[in-house]
Amino acid sequence: MKRNLVKPDVVSYSTVIDGLCKCGLLNEARDLCSEMIDGGISPDIVTYTSLINGFSSMGDWQEATRLLNEMILRGINPDVRTFTTMVDAFCKEGRITEAQAAFATMMKHGQKPNVVTYSALMDGYCLVENVNESKKVFNRMVKSGLKPSVISYSILINGYCKTKRVDEALNLFKEMRCKNLVPNTVTYNSLIDGLCKSGRISHVQDLISEMHESGHSPDIFTYTILLDAFCKRQYLDKAIALYKQIDDQGIQPSLYTYNILLDGLCKGKRLDTALKIFQNLLNNGYCLNVYTYNIMINGLCGEGLIDVAVNLLSKMEKNSCFPNSVTYETLIRALLKEGENDKAKKLLFEMEWEVEHNGHCSLTIGMRVWKKCLEYGAVGDCLGSVLVIQRQRDVKENLLLD
């Protein structure tokens, strides 16, 4: 812009800054804002709101708060969108105290919260399982003269369902329909999940029929919820029929959906069916995760097919999916149960190779202790303790990777 002698204005800068923030290039966005100020152009409310939203969404609350204070010092009054951005970001991170503070500051500056602001705060309370406070915010919104949206109702319905207060969720569902608000797929899924987890599966079919009538087709989340309920209650024929229905409708199941089905089939002694589905996933090039392999290894060990399970461990590694402590626990327990201490020892040395060549440090302590256990014949005494340590280390590694 400068090269062509066209002087950029606040709108031009703000547009680029907003784009940089949405791409996660926050330092570049902040630098451009500084360049803008150095060039004699003052940022406006749009500029600051974009920056605050960007830093808040990345969890940099210190910078977001600094920008808010800078904005106020420059005589730019934050509007409802600016404050709602902060309330929503704080809530999504479970920082409800900071969200309340941002909400209070908003009121102090004479900005009236809108339905989006109230809904964001409601969602924050539900995320920390404080549904009673969420309902108070809902009531406060109504008292202020605002009409709750479908999203507002859906948030509270989901909150009630997650805390096993399904009857209250159903009452709220009826209320929203009486007010001519049409539930969306998220609303239905929350209610279906609540009904399934409370053991009221018989009510679910009516809701699914109602979904179709209202023009909201069940999605993969709907079917996954129902599939999980069928598997947990060992309604395996219904689970298989539902899986075929999903396939017939051309809906692509997620790996999470497949894991639920495979786990249900293995635990329900339908290993042959599970193996067919599993093999089909491999043939179609699915990138299976450690949970999928662990489910199948556990299923094979449960049926006494330990050699097949060990072979699957090799296949797993060839497919660049590395075992965790649960994988080894399952196999070692199965081998020891069959009195196969030598094979358990062999597996232990394979673990050692994994540590040396692939750097799986979480297996190091378990491997060393296991070697001592096998040497002294104290396998039974130390198994539980070692594997608890392994799991804790796996969890820590996953957190670091995240």
Helix proportion: over 70%
Can you count the beta strands?
0
Terminal-residue CA separation: 40 Å
Structural category = mainly alpha
- Runs with pLDDT <50, length 5+? 384-390
What's the Cα radius of gyration? Answer: 27 Å
Proportion of residues in extended strands? under 5%
Give, in order, the helices and strands.
Answer: HHHHHHHHHHHHHHHHHHHHHH
For the largest beta-sheet, the strand count, sense and barrel status come to: none
Overall geometry: globular
**Discrete helix count:** 22
* Overall pLDDT metric: 86
What can you tell me about this protein's structure?
Among the domains are: 219-286, Tetratricopeptide repeat domain (Serine Threonine Protein Phosphatase 5, Tetratricopeptide repeat, Alpha Horseshoe); 297-402, no CATH class. The chain contains 22 helices and no strands. The two termini are 40 Å apart. The longest helix has 23 residues, at 379-401. The protein has 402 residues and is mainly alpha-helical.
